[in-house]
Give the backbone structure.
Amino acid sequence: MSKQRVLSGVQPTGNLHLGNYLGAIRNWVEIQDQYDNFFCVVDLHAITVPHDPKTLADDTYKIAALYLACGIDLQYSTIFVQSHVTAHSELTWLLNCITPLNWLERMIQFKEKAIKQGENVSVGLLDYPVLMAADILLYDADKVPVGEDQKQHLELTRDIAARVNDKFGKKKEPVLKIPDPLIRTEGARVMSLTDGTKKMSKSDPSEMSRISLLDSPDEIKKKIKRCKTDPIKGLVFDDPQRPECHNLLSLYQILAGKTKQEVATECQDMGWGQFKPLLTEVTIEALKPIQDKYKEIMDNKDYLNSVLQEGKAKAEEVANTTLSRVKDALGYLPSL
Ligand code: TYM
């Protein structure tokens, strides 16, 4: 039996942070040998908010290199750049004409990002989840491993696919496969270091709010030293009055590879002065191999280019087949 398919992606906007790693990429790496995987760098999504053309290409390389540095293995997985496969834009248009506007207006991320941007909101920002649906549906993905914040976009993807099937599918032959989200409980929502009630995010203006995968040991030390805590001694999980405490213990648990119970016992009598150096040490240790491998890959652009070129060819083959199937179902005259 052939393997089920996985698709996921990250935007090339700035460096990846611990939230992206623990919520998404670490999980891709862990499950990749069980699936046929496609991981894209979603550069078309990156221009839905104002962007700098001078950094887009470099950021795209960076994310692809980080995928490899985090352990994505080309034996199981294909890495490609979204804009290199034009079927993504084309399917987005077709899905746009089938998606009700009010489905998009309900999206929480759109509302949050629109508020942050004030008057400069583009049509692309509203349309972002339809492009994401196209990314997923083009590959007939069975599973989409993401962080908690993408759950609503996944539900929308399922709704769009069901609508296409309903309107244009034949009873026994759906046009599109309906994917399932894969959201792990641990690390699905890593919170900001400066406010334990907000998620860690690339768009937070404060660098102190997040740990980037490429931060130096000194930067990591400084950020953890200054991160928000509380004056209570004894560290516990799950106290709604202590969101920072829960977040930092959770980070420690995942990065140290311990169980929740082990960490709860270890830290129950600790103060922050004792805990912070521990968290600093495991964070530096967890990121070191990723950083070393990243440097190696970025020093070899020819290799990186060849990975992306091969990825494009493999992705195109699958994506173009699905696109033809959708166009056929919608009644288009085949290209002459
Ligand atoms: P992006 O680049 O914002 O986030 C990439 C991945 O990181 C996860 N994530 C987090 N997980 C835990 N805690 C956090 N604080 C945190 N912040 C981010 C996100 O859930 C995501 O899995 N729309 C997607 C990109 C995308 C995509 C796709 C994903 C485009 N097309 C198709 C899957 C399938 C996004 O927000 O990327």
Q: What stands out?
A: Residues 10 and 41 are 6 Å apart (CA to CA). Residues 301-330 form the longest helix (30 residues). Residues 7-11, 19-20, 23-24, 42, 45, 132, 135-136, 144, 146-147, 149-150, 153, 188-190, 199-200 surround tryptophanyl-5'AMP (CB under 6 Å).
